[in-house]
Design goal:
This protein is α+β, with helices and mostly antiparallel strands. Helix content is about 30%, strand content about 30%. The chain is built from 3 helices and 5 strands.
């Protein structure tokens, strides 16, 4: 679970085991999500993006606040992939926007 997938925008809580006592505790971890959207009225239209807050970003897309997606709203999330490393998230987003990445997404998402 990632920060952007939790209800009410709460950060993800991942169980961690304390090395000293073996007890379990929860720790918030900031994640970056690479997401794929699909247009509801035009399902052939897709969009791939990157965000730290998926709920807020989807809301912005659906309000028409993103020029490249405004004419195909409303949108739904097709898939979201969370990364602890922003650099890895950026690299994965770039890959998904290549020809090979588009084909990978078509086959697997």
């Amino acid at each position: 679970m990632t920060r952007c997938e939790t209800p009410a925008g709460k950060p993800a809580m991942l169980p961690l085991r304390s090395q000293r006592s073996g007890e379990r505790r929860l720790q918030a971890i900031k994640m970056t999500a690479v997401y794929r959207l699909r247009s509801v009225p035009n399902p052939e239209q897709g969009y791939t993006g990157l965000t730290d807050d998926l709920s807020a970003r989807l809301k912005k897309h659906n309000e028409g606040g993103v020029p490249s997606t405004a004419s195909f709203k409303p949108w739904r999330v097709e898939s979201a992939h969370a990364f602890a490393s922003r650099e890895k998230a950026v690299a994965f987003e770039r890959y998904l926007k290549t020809g090979s990445g588009r084909e990978f997404a078509r086959r697997h998402f």
